[in-house]
Amino acid sequence: MKPAPFAYVRPATLDDAVAELVATGGDGKVLAGGQSLVPVLAMRLGRPGTLVDITAAAGLDTIERRGAVLRIGATTRQRRLERSPAANDVPLIGMALPFVGHRELRSRGTVCGSLAHADPGAELPAVASCLGAVLEVTGASGRRTVPAAEFFAGAMTTAVGAEEVLSAVEFPVAAPGEGFGFAEIARRHGDFALAGVVTRVRSAGGAVQEAVISGFGISDRAATRDVTDLVRAAADSADVEAALRPGTEELARDVVDTAGDSHGSQGYRRRLFAVLAARELAHAHRRSTEGRS
Questions:
Q1: Would the keyword Zinc-finger be found if you checked this record's keyword annotation (predicted)?
Q2: Domain count within the chain
Q3: What is the average pLDDT across 230-248?
Q4: How far is Cα 47 from Cα 20, in angstroms, rounded to an integer?
C-alpha cells in the first residue's frame, strides 16, 4: 500500500516545528527517523494531514552530559548513541540498543522517536521507565518535563499532545553501587520481544538499597515495579537467581497481562518473564556489589 496524501514541511527550528503543528489544528505528525511512522503511513493506519519533519531543526541532534544526567536530543540517531563513548555513562543504553531493530534501522531511527512511539514491545521505553528518565516536551506554551512513570499512557500513547514535540530525554548516569541487567527473547534478532526485562539494583556496604525491574512485550506499556524487598530477601542465598524465582513467578502473574498471540500465549510469556527477571536481577545484584555496572 501507499500512504494517503499529506502535506510536508521541514522547519529549521524547534519553535517553527511547534508553530507548524499548531497550524495543523492537531492534524500534524512529527517525523524524525521515520522507522516507526513510515510503515504506519504505508499501511494507512495513520492519515495525518501534514508531516512536520524536524530533522533539519537546529540543536536537536545532541548527546550531552549535564551533571548527573545524559541528555539526548530529539533527532539523535540510535546508532550514533550506540557508538558514542557517552553511552558508557548509562550502561543500560549500551545493553539495550543492539537489540533495537537492526543496525540499518538504528542508523535512521531516533532515541526520542522510539520513546514517542511507545510500542509495548520496544526496549527504550522500558529502559527509560526503569531508570526514571525525564522527558522534555515542547509546545506553544513552552517546555515541560514529564517523568517516565507518567509519560507512557498505554500502547502507542504518551503524554505528548497533538501540537507538541518530544524535544529531549534525560537519562540518569550510573551511580556508584549500581548494577544493571537486560535480556529479551524474540523469534529473531531485531524482532519485537516476546518478553524482556530491564533491571537496576543499587547496593551499599554489601546491602541492597533499591531494586527496580521493567518488563516489556508483556503488557500495553513497560511494566515497572519496585522489587527491593524481593532482591534483599534473596541476596544472602548461595544461589541468588534460584532464590528469586518464586518471587519472579508471582510477579509474572501480576505484570504479564497480554492476551498472547500466535507467537506466544500469556502463560508462555509469564514463564519467559519469570526466568529472565530472576536471572537479570541476580546479574544486576552481583554487579552492584562488585562495583561494576
A1: no
A2: 3
A3: 97
A4: 17
28 has which bridge partners? Answer: 50
Based on the fold, state whether residues 164 and 150 are members of the same structural domain: yes
Q: For the chain, list the strands marked E by DSSP.
A: 7-9, 28-31, 50-53, 63-66, 69-73, 134-139, 142-147, 152-154, 157-158, 165-172, 178-185, 195-204, 207-216, 223-226, 260-261, 264-265
Length of the chain: 293
- DSSP assignment of 48-66 equals -SEEEE-TT-TT-S-EEEE
Using DSSP, state whether 34 is helix, strand or coil.
coil
* 9 SS3 class: strand
Q: What is the domain-level CATH number for residue 19?
A: 3.30.43.10
Last residue of a domain, one of 148, 172, 196: 172
- At 80-89, the pLDDT tens digits run 999 999 999 9
Q: Are residues 142 and 216 in the same domain?
A: no
Is residue 97 within 8 Å of 81, Cβ to Cβ? yes
